[in-house]
Fold this protein.
Amino acid sequence: MELALQQVLPGQGAGTSAGAGPGAAGAETAAAAGPSAPAGTTAGAGGPAAGAAAGVPVGSIGGSAPALQPGRVLLMEVLSLVAGEARVRLAGQSFTARGQLPPEPGSFWVRVEAAAPGLIKLKLLTEPGAGARPPADLAAELGLPAGKESAALVRALVRWRLPLSPEPARALLAEARDLPPEAKPFFFAARAWLETLNLAGKPKELAEALPYLLRRPDAAPEGQAALNQALPLLPGREVVRFLSFQAGGGEGEVYLVREGRASPGDGAGPKRLVVRMATERWGEVWVELTLTGKNIAARVSAADPALPALAQAAQVGLAARLEGLGFTLAALRVGQRAVHSILDFLAPAESLTYSGIDVSV
């Protein structure tokens, strides 16, 4: 597949080309050359098309290299197809594409073979519509050891839309070397999520936050403070605030979850409350409350098989109590499942507008 791409600058429509000067001419020459670009897709971008992806987190995992540099593997999105022209998104940048277009919108993996002002050569790694590549395949692209450990690492980083590169990935594997095999997926999940926060360049705060997030014996109040002062690097990500409490013979936490880059004092209320309670009788119990106006949707999760039935039986009483407070219990879901951390209730932003999944190889 060969494509000629031109960057779409702010304010331009999908059918408007940017950089009509030397960048556009270079794109047309490359597209027409055919054999000169045997790797597959050829993209020409006027202006600063070869710059870094806007908003991609920069930290010890992500690094600071431009997302469109040679060797990177990225997920390209074809957003629309109109009259022989496509609007595509690559590494957080929008382009107008012409050439051998896929039959319909979708996503597929490409590798950057060469990048220069006005010219980007891409190699198609998966056919349109082939779906996401398995984590084990991406781990192999990185040159990581084969096995469940590398796949778990890649799965965590891809989940949070983080760019990957071989050396930091190997460093993370080495960091988790002495952990029990069953603990490594949770370590990678926590480590990846921390990279989505503005803790890059703050090794002390990062080192304090990690054991607190994992609830390890060496966790300290400083870890909670570091997490409560952190903000997401990208818009659309959820902000989480951590509060501890003691209740009778148990202990727990309340997590305030809200959208966007809200600062601690901006007055914005949480969109969800998640409560973790450690009890002697039922072990850990997690309750998620989602507030929409005066309506509350609740979800109760616990590993103990007896608790879900008890919570379901208490639904009428709970609804009555909430009604007395001016709220309506809109829904109650109860399930038996083991919850490992607050991360089980969080999700990355749905849109890839501002972040590409890329791999340096």
